[in-house]
Fold:
Amino acid sequence: MTGLLDSCEGFFGSRDLYQVLGVEKTATEKELKKSYHRVSLKVHPDRVNPEEKSNATQKFQTLGKVYAILSDVDRRAVYDESGEIDDENIAPDDRDWDQYWRLLFRKITISDIKNFEAQYKESEEELNDLKEAYLDGEGKMGYILQNVLCSTIEDEPRFTKIIQKWIQEEEVPDFNLFSKETKRKKDARKRKAAKEAEEAEEMKKQLGLGDTDDSLKALILQRGQQRAGEMDSFLDGLAAKYGGGGGKGKKKTNRKGGKK
Structure:
């Protein structure tokens, strides 16, 4: 049987339990729980295709074991001192890790999403995220809409006015990809958004999901973001707000990919 550290390296690219969760070694119990929630939302087996289910389940199990060790004061102390773990005393793979997860975290509901959006939109946090996305994407509006939480094509005119004001006040550089974007590109973006919205609504009907459904599938469909990668920043933000403590968190922006 593969040891936990080997599994961590295989699934997460690191044998360091703290790196798997994306936290510092000095992380508090609250920070550990919040990070576990954030990462688990990304790797949860419910989010993948049937053919990827087995691999995703093993990854989810590995993550659960990592958190189980670091959330135990004594086992964490032993790991911190030696860098080793006792595989014989780790909960087995056939443990119901999904049930374990649900005991730790309540489900994110459609109501949670709407409340989050109401608090986030036009807030100082949204402005900071918008500026960061504008700079990281070098003015690409497609990138901005993908990386600012809760944003849709309807937010584009509002974002444009804000960015234009920043440019006039020399708060940000004037990227050609923003100020000289062609009408053809803007229209193509609107058509793509409309098509994705139609597909999401159709799939929602096929699955019989209503606005009150609180499953992760409903969450994905409600936002109209079909690709898992496009959900990451949105889920990060919700995890930071609702994952074990309710503290106001900051999303992680993908600086390397996703520019369109």
Observations:
- The chain has two domains: 4-104, 110-242.
- Residues 183-206 form the longest helix (24 residues).
- The CA atoms of residues 14 and 162 lie 41 Å apart.
